[in-house]
Design brief:
By secondary structure, the chain is α/β, with parallel strands linked by helices. 33% of the residues lie in helices and 23% in strands. It has nine helices and eleven strands. The strands form three sheets. The protein has a six-stranded mixed beta sheet, sandwiched between helices. It has a three-stranded antiparallel beta sheet with strand order 1-2-3, with no helix packed on it. A hairpin with a 5-residue loop joins β1 and β2.
Amino acid sequence: MTCHNCRIACKRHGRDRKGNQRFKCRQCSKTFLEPQDKPLDGMYLPMSEAELILKMLVEGSSVSTVERITGVHHTTILKLLALAGERCERLMEDRIKALPVVDVQADEIWSFIQKKEKTKGPEEAHADEIGDNWTFVAIEWNSKLIVAWHTGRRTKRDTLEFTEKLADATTGRFQLTTDGFGPYRAAVAESVGQRVDFAQLVKVYATTREGSQRYSPAEVVEAVPYVRIGTPDPEKICTSHIERQNLTMRMGMRRFTRLTNGFSKTFKNHRAAIALHFAFYNFCRVHRTLRATPAMAAGITNRAWGISDLLA
């Protein structure tokens, strides 16, 4: 180790409180630490502990649960989540781009941030990052790969942003099936209309339940397919796989679990949790049916990644 100013060899000078080796210049007597890698952007959290925290989060543990088990303060946990979410979002954008796909299903899943839409006050009426939140998800059901996602409001603008991401993530002609949400028609036509066979599966529900069963989903009476663009295969007009993915999201992210106090308090942390979940699902989690990760099935990687790979 050499001094930054004098450029001469230094001698060891004990260790700091964290056990890091200190050095002292023989000429100017300045002391300093040996340069260290900072994979967590300056956070002092050990990598082994950071990996444990993220593993607990992607397995459906709440922030409070992680804090009780690991002893790490919840502010540090949320800072780590934001950092991991940002890196995972960049990873998804870089690795999942212009992929050849065959059958894609898309749907939206509801959650809320800070409070539900009906409880917002007049001063919060135009605050888009508070209230009901919808996450748009598209899955390629052969490889089970999440090819695109977007979180925001259930509006025409957000629907178009989602379909633009879907267009960037895919290449070639493919079949797309969504639910009956109206804005999909114009958004799909504008974003990927020239290379998609698009159909919507509109479900007809029975009367809303009352009493003790009012939180249970309504019974589906009929599912009616409507061809919107091209010539989709009638046998493959289906949304079962994306609806099963919705269950995976509710089980894997505490923020999506209904009737709990684990909901998101800020849009930033909500988005980071979703990005971490999808990156872990695509690159790290081995799908039981495929016996491989979705990224391996899609030919993006040749091995199952670890949490450390997502942070790298």
